[in-house]
Amino acid sequence: MKKVLGMGNALTDILLQIDDGVLEKLNLRKGSMQLINSGKIDELCTLLDFSKAVKATGGSASNTVYGIAKLGGEAGFFGKIGEDDTGDFFLDDTKNNGVIPYLIVDKQQSGSSTVLVSKDGERTMCTFLGAAGELEAADLSTAPFENYDILHIEGFLVQNHALILRAVQMAKAAGMLVSIDLASFNVIEEHFEFLNSLVTKYVDIVFVNEDEARAFTGKKPKDALIALSQQVDIAIVKTGKKGSMIASKGVQYSVKAYKADCIDTTGAGDLYAAGFLYGLARDLPLPVCGQIGSWISSRIVQVIGAKMPDELWEEIHVKVNQIIAES
Helices 221-229 and 210-217: crossing angle, nearest 10°? Predict the structure, then answer.
């Protein structure tokens, strides 16, 4: 089985359920990711009751490799944390989830992401990068890359062009496939030229949702899928309740969505990528990879946050084995 190395922002998620009026007061675009400073954190603390928050390790790529490890795959994570309690929590939780940590410790405060979950399950992220944002090209070493087969990068790293460019170049030198989740429509809008060049030159697998597909290609999902598949070997467009679409080498596949009682979409895309890459690591057919991703994402939206209890993972294993057996 192929091994997957994730690289991204080492963040601890702080999840809160809110009314949409809170977003208006904070001047936040629903469904977006905003980088915030300590002043914005103070504003959040004034408006929100953090005593009701759910805390878990997060960050898009971290969530994805967590899912791969929970499925029984081999996965590692490369990022940067602070020398504090939040950093210790992130390190311990990463290990406990079966992911091999490649974490650099910095003197800055560890990063965190306040995830505001609306009543319809949509999440708006306020991210304080802290030490996570200090990860730089000079921190990269060849050793982790040589031990893995797929590098999965989160688009939220794109603010540091030198870092992400160096990482994909090292991955290619090590013979790895490069996978990227384009993360958020506003991130794409702000870094379009760089991302377009990166995807065309270095990326093998790209994940987007409908909004991200539109931001990246200017097209509706089906046409966006075709456009993306002309840039990469495997393109995946996630369309929420309608399922997902996959295109590779001129062939397109449709994957159904599974019914779910959605209370929080946090981690849904990350866990879809986990299921898909797990299937790919096992050399399963692409539609089967998509089915696994779709099933896991349908389970994660039924809990708060991007982590699931062991009993839910047991249910997931039964269904995944069934999907594979029927393929």
Answer: 60
124-154 burial: b if 16+ Cβ within 10 Å, else e? bbbbbbbbbbbbeeebbeeebbeebbbbbbb
Render pLDDT for 37-81 as a digit per residue (tens, 0 to 9): 878 888 888 888 888 888 888 899 999 999 999 999 999 999 999
- β-strand partners of 179: 152, 205
Q: What is the CATH number of the domain that holds 172?
A: 3.40.1190.20
* Residues 53 and 16 sit within 8 Å (Cβ to Cβ): yes
Domain ranges, residue 66: 4-10+58-110+130-326
CA angle at 92 for the pair 306 and 295, rounded to the nearest 5°: 25
The pTM assigned to this predicted structure is 0.90
The total number of structural domains in the chain stands at: 1
Nearest to 221 by CA among 203, 202, 240: 240
Q: What is the DSSP letter of 11?
A: E
Residue 36 lies in a domain: no
pLDDT at residue 266 above 90? no
With contact defined as beta carbons under 8 Å apart, do 280 and 289 qualify? yes
Structure tokens at 31: 């469904």
Q: Where are the beta strands (DSSP E) in the chain?
A: 4-7, 11-17, 33-35, 54-58, 75-82, 100-106, 111-117, 123-128, 150-154, 177-181, 205-209, 234-238, 244-248, 251-255
Spell out the residues 6+ positions from residue 224 whose beta carbon is closer than 8 angstroms to its own: 208, 213, 214, 216, 217, 237
